[in-house]
């Protein structure tokens, strides 16, 4: 087993910008097993959208829609993802968990799952006085306005 503690100390204590030769890292990690990260490949937002749409029998959403599922959730269920560069990536297992969670809550409204008589759904309450009806806006004919201005100008000249 490689000396992972030595490697982590080296990385933690090294000053910012320190370059490490690749051969040094290979020596430290000489007996490390190969990475198994490819067992669960990451999906782009478009690929995740297609996979989820197939699993839920729905129309394929846009990447912006999937991003919204990641940040805000979709009917009470959030999609797990990790940041990759400027965007997000979704693991296939996370997409499958999202599909399973959505299928389990299908037919219920967001926030309604698990309601009991002790915890009834919230009702909306309007606060404050009712608003008065808005008065209709009247529009004047431009010819009438011009004649009013001319009449006011005539009166001003007569008074002077």
Relevant terms:
single chain, 160 residues, mainly alpha, three-stranded antiparallel β-sheet, 3 strands
Description:
- The protein has 160 residues and is mainly alpha-helical.
- The protein has a domain at 42-104.
- The chain is built from six helices and three strands, in the order H-H-E-H-H-E-E-H-H.
- A hairpin with a 2-residue loop joins strand 2 (82-84) and strand 3.
- The protein is elongated and about 105 Å long.
- The model has no long low-confidence stretch (mean pLDDT 75).
Question: What order do the helices and strands come in, and which of them pair?
Answer:
Layout: H1 4-13, H2 22-28, E1 42-43, H3 45-56, H4 63-71, E2 82-84, E3 87-91, H5 92-104, H6 142-159
Antiparallel strand pairs: 1-3, 2-3
Query: Strand-and-helix sequence, N→C?
Result: HHEHHEEHH
Helical content (DSSP H or I, runs of 4+): 40-55%
Radius of gyration: 33 Å
In terms of structural class, how would the helical and strand content be classed?
Answer: mainly alpha
Strand arrangement across the biggest beta sheet: 1-3-2
Can you summarize the main beta sheet?
3 strands, antiparallel
Number of strands: 3
What is the terminal separation in angstroms?
107 Å
Proportion of residues in extended strands: 5-15%
Apparent shape: elongated
Mean pLDDT: 75
Low-confidence stretches: none
Helical stretch count?
A: 6
Briefly say what this structure is:
This protein is mostly helical and 160 residues long.
């Amino acid at each position: 087993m490689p000396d992972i503690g030595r490697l982590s100390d080296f990385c933690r204590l090294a000053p910012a910008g320190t370059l490490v030769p690749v051969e040094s890292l290979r020596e430290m990690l000489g007996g490390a097993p190969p990475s198994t990260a490819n067992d669960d490949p990451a999906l782009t937002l478009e690929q995740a959208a297609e996979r989820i749409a197939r699993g839920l029998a729905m129309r394929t959403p846009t990447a912006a829609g999937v991003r919204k599922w990641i940040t805000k959730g979709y009917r009470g269920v959030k999609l797990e993802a990790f940041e990759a560069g400027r965007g997000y990536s979704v693991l296939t297992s996370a997409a499958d968990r999202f599909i399973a969670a959505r299928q389990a809550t299908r037919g219920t409204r967001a926030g309604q799952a698990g309601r009991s008589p002790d915890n009834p759904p919230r009702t909306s309450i309007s606060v404050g006085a009712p608003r008065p009806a808005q008065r209709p806006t009247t529009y004047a004919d431009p010819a009438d306005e011009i004649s009013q201005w001319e009449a006011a100008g005539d009166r001003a000249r007569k008074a002077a």
